[in-house]
Amino acid sequence: MAATNLGGAGADAPERVQAAAAGHPLRGVKPPAATSAPLAPGAVVPGATEPAQSGPEHVEAPVAYDAILLAGFGGPEGQDDVIPFLRNVTRGRGIPDERLEEVAHHYRHFGGVSPINEHNRELKAALEAELAGRGIDLPVIWGNRNWDPYMNDALREANERGFTKLIAVATSAYSSYSSCRQYREDFADALEDTGLGGVVQIDKVRQFFDHPGFVAPFVEGVREAIAKLEADHESFDPTTDVEVLFATHSIPTTDAAKSGPADRGFGEGGAYAAQHLAVAEVVMREAGAGDVPWKLVYQSRSGPPTQPWLEPDVNDAIAELPAAGRKAVVIVPLGFVSDHMEVMWDLDEEAMETAEEHGLAAVRVPTPGVHPAYVAGLVDLVLERVHGTPAAERPHATDLGPWYDVCRPGCCENVRLGFKPALSGIAP
């Protein structure tokens, strides 16, 4: 997950004009922001299949989907891709290339290649294998928000293959503007850009932060990390010497406060913080580490220093551990489904360096990636919508779930930008 990509007009506009003049759609380019989202007569949810159009919290009627839309963030795959990719991510904010280069060095450190596209290829293959193993005939089409293959090209592929009912799985587990609503806006952008409004319908599986399939890899990772520290350091007592830091992407506090439905009353951190805290508590309990100290921390903040973002920063939290008597830290990338650039740079490079500087032993827990429980869980989430599974029968590891199939009115507003057209939720 990343906290930018704010939409708006982009540098590809001349290419679009040329393509239109040539009489053919332009592929391999991020679509512009949509001006509207298609609403069926009497519907309150744009672009939805019929059972979701009236906006129930949980869709409990079966839907015969044609395919799964795997929705990723996207990332560069070479040095020449880095700045164009970052232009896509920050589109509409007017950030000059010289400032983008300040972020680009993270990617350039790894040869200009983000791991995220390869991870999505692996996830797509794993989902296809899981579906085939269960005898489920649902093709998986992959589209990204910010790099090739783009979401609009994925919809063109679906249309060309005769698929009109798609169930989307976004590679992001939590509720916030950047981790949920922005994906829904990108669905609307792609639908308008391709002219497939009223032809292709898109629903989205619920946010899966507390689905057992997502939680299980972290439970396993925390248990193994603490066991490793105990094995490597015989004198360690985890209840006093070790602290577990659950790390997730920081977001502006104004966006955090607006995450989730307004009527749930989650407080200052909104649903975003509440979901992470609830899952972290479950992970510690199920890992048999209920007596080990832990904390939710944040990473990868961007934006002007004057803008408040969620804190504490992971590096600041690590720096404070020796004074609390800690000798080791377990870092859990709870906000990430795979080893994004933020995991590789901000945790594996910077956080590990901070731990070393302060004399702390450190272990970083793996992300779910293509863990069998995670892959099976994503298929289970799709099947909830295929079968119309009643909410009472849906698995969830915290008291917050099961989360909504259809996002509620006003959910996850971007305070600066307001509401833009989005699918899979009640307008706005």
Automatic annotation (TrEMBL):
Binding-site residues, Fe-coproporphyrin III: S114, Y183
Originating species: Agromyces tropicus
InterPro entries: Ferrochelatase (IPR001015), Ferrochelatase_C (IPR033644), Ferrochelatase_N (IPR033659)
Reaction(s) this enzyme catalyzes, per UniProt: Fe-coproporphyrin III + 2 H(+) = coproporphyrin III + Fe(2+)
Main localization category: cytoplasm
EC number(s) on file: 4.99.1.9
Compartments in which it is found: Cytoplasm
Positions of Fe(2+) binding: H249, E342
Superkingdom classification of source: Bacteria
A Pfam family: Ferrochelatase
Family: Belongs to the ferrochelatase family.
Chain residue ranges for the region called Disordered: 26-57
Gene: cpfC
Function (record text): Involved in coproporphyrin-dependent heme b biosynthesis. Catalyzes the insertion of ferrous iron into coproporphyrin III to form Fe-coproporphyrin III.
Pathway info: Porphyrin-containing compound metabolism; protoheme biosynthesis
Protein keywords: Cytoplasm, Heme biosynthesis, Iron, Lyase, Metal-binding, Porphyrin biosynthesis
Biased composition (Low complexity): 37-48
Lineage: Bacteria, Bacillati, Actinomycetota, Actinomycetes, Micrococcales
The protein's name: Coproporphyrin III ferrochelatase
